[in-house]
Design goal:
- By secondary structure, this protein is mainly alpha-helical.
- Among the domains are: 85 residues, Tetratricopeptide repeat domain (Serine Threonine Protein Phosphatase 5, Tetratricopeptide repeat, Alpha Horseshoe), CATH 1.25.40; 69 residues.
- Helix 7 packs antiparallel against helix 8.
- The two termini are 29 Å apart.
Length: 222
């Protein structure tokens, strides 16, 4: 069974993402830089089965903005243990689409899906911990979730994991791993990872020697 992930449509995170990757620190800006870099990571949206069925029907209902119908179709599947349906219900509660926004419910559904290896759920759950959304903020709990999702080649998780490595958030700071992880994400189309690499080489961040040629190379890649 395949999956499909839609692009984010979230005005808060999109507004932040319009800015460039944080530049070199100065005068107590380091923690703020870390958090802004992390905010460039955006929630994964709905997973939908390629094959026809209640999961896909729910996805069609959601596209038609019939959120109640989507939830009605996904709820039984989620209760039966379908990881994609569990993730979708988590996102409905996370965003408040068709239901009252409930981060506790979002966390519960994401956790059930993540425990089955659903990469989108692991990624979104990691973001909840990294941002302190409905839970105590814990980078240490976020990192393994990002790592497991990245191991499935989940591109947003790969970019975010690079941020965690680069700044030593919830794990030992490891610039080499950060660069390697961003390079992998960039190779799979992550514009955030390309910009992170370009900015790192442009300004000599994270202990790297400034290299304008490498910066231009990464920024020009598509």
């Amino acid at each position: 069974m395949g999956s499909r992930v839609l692009d984010l449509d979230n005005s808060i995170y999109k507004a932040i993402a319009r800015g460039r990757f944080p530049s070199a620190p100065g005068h107590g800006e380091i923690d703020l830089m870390k958090r802004i870099a992390l905010m460039l990571s955006t929630l994964a949206l709905f997973s939908a089965a390629v094959l026809a069925g209640p999961l896909e029907d729910g996805f069609a209902a959601f596209k038609a903005k019939d959120y109640a119908r989507a939830r009605q179709l996904w709820q039984p599947l989620a209760q039966e243990g379908n990881a994609d349906a569990q993730f979708n219900l988590g996102l409905l509660h996370h965003k408040g689409w068709g239901v009252e926004r409930d981060l506790r419910q979002a966390h519960e559904w994401y956790t059930q899906a993540a425990n089955q290896g659903q990469a989108d759920a692991m990624y979104n759950l990691g973001l909840m911990y990294a941002r302190g959304e409905g839970v105590f903020r814990s980078d240490r709990q976020a990192v393994p979730l990002f790592e497991h999702a990245a191991a499935q080649e989940h591109v947003p998780a790969m970019y975010t994991l690079g941020v965690m490595y680069a700044y030593g958030m919830g794990t030992r700071k490891d610039v080499a791993k950060a660069i390697a992880t961003w390079e992998q994400a960039a190779a799979k189309g992550s514009s955030q990872a390309r910009e992170a690499l370009a900015r790192a080489y442009e300004e000599g961040m994270f202990g790297l020697a400034a290299d304008p040629a490498k910066a231009a190379e990464w920024r020009d890649r598509k």
